Known about the structure:
globular, single chain, binds nicotinamide-adenine-dinucleotide
Amino acid sequence: MKILITGGAGFIGSHVVRQFVNNYPNYHIFNLDKLTYAGNLENLKDIENKPNYTFIKADITNETFINNLFEKHQFERVIHLAAESHVDRSILHPLAFVNTNVIGTIILLNAFKNTWEDNFKNKLFYHISTDEVYGALGQTGLFKETTAYHPNSPYSASKASSDHFVRAYGETYGIPYVITNCSNNYGPNQFPEKLIPLFINNIINNKPLPVYGDGNYTRDWLYVKDHAVAIDLVFHKGKNLETYNIGGFNEWKNINLVTLLCQQMDKKLNREKGASEKLITYVKDRPGHDLRYAIDASKINKELGWKPSVTFEQGLDKTIDWYLENEVWLKSVTSGDYQSYYDRQYS
Ligand code: NAD
Ligand code: DAU
């Protein structure tokens, strides 16, 4: 089977590529990635020479290239992760998010449709989405697959739009698809603009930890390798035209999470108790900041038997170890453009 994975050099994508390349020698995995600031081939060093793996540097918004590529390789299945993924950047540059997340998805859908029209048997367009499309919860309640979409940021609006297009292509043209909406991922290889790796990097460098607003915002956290396993399961056993929510059953208020992270980091770095917590700095809130996300992942649990394999404390421990052992990776991705983004965002 020829599988096209988009965004495979990014955080989640690299774990998905590894999961498929290592576990399915009979599949050929084509990883297509533009290598934006968030994509990094270092993430895939361990599998880059495997015979069932090919990397293609390309932009999903390049329609001619994508059409020719589908014509040449006839990908039977697509796992689509390529996206602009950071909420704060979407507030600075919304159009980039519309381009990649909406237009790019439609270009892929068209190429897939045109390749397999009238012969969709055993084909699949698997679209990776986010719980942010559902908007914000109050202090109670959970996002279900049936929750109405109510995106609040340019990022989540672009992801919601792409989800709608995938569903519309299923209804209108009959393309087989599945969509998964996952909560906040954390783990190795995450770009240090997102909360956990940003704060790990700042603690290492004794820099302030910029907590937005009062820190009482809540997210549900999932270890990235557990997400990759869930994607593998849905890819093989998910029902056509269905949506599955994926979450960690693991809600944390930001300030409590940051406090736990500080405590674990103090131990790892042999710093005195409380040293990292002193770096916590409350800063201006994110505009349109969603109060709380929480996922009801009972459908994937009951239907496909998936559940997270690690607790948050275990996952965080592995994550911190990875960043401490990969300071070269961390230094290389935080050189260059990173500093100008950081200064603009946190000045
Ligand atoms: P990421 O930003 O780490 O990686 C995105 C990858 O896409 C990068 O390798 C980048 O180079 C590539 N890319 C961006 N624009 C491209 C383009 N125009 N053409 C080709 N490649 C391009 O993102 P991530 O956190 O790994 O997220 C992956 C997917 O999962 C996204 O669709 C995101 O919306 C979704 N998601 C993320 C999370 C999370 O917590 N990180 C949670 C739920 C869903
Ligand atoms: O819920 C899934 C989503 O999770 C994914 O779709 C997105 O791609 C991913 O980026 C993530 O979005 P969030 O906005 O929730 O993640 P982020 O790490 O940016 O922020 C997590 C929380 O921490 C959020 O409440 C904002 C807060 N925060 C974040 C940063 C970067 C801070 O307080 N300070 C910060 O510097």
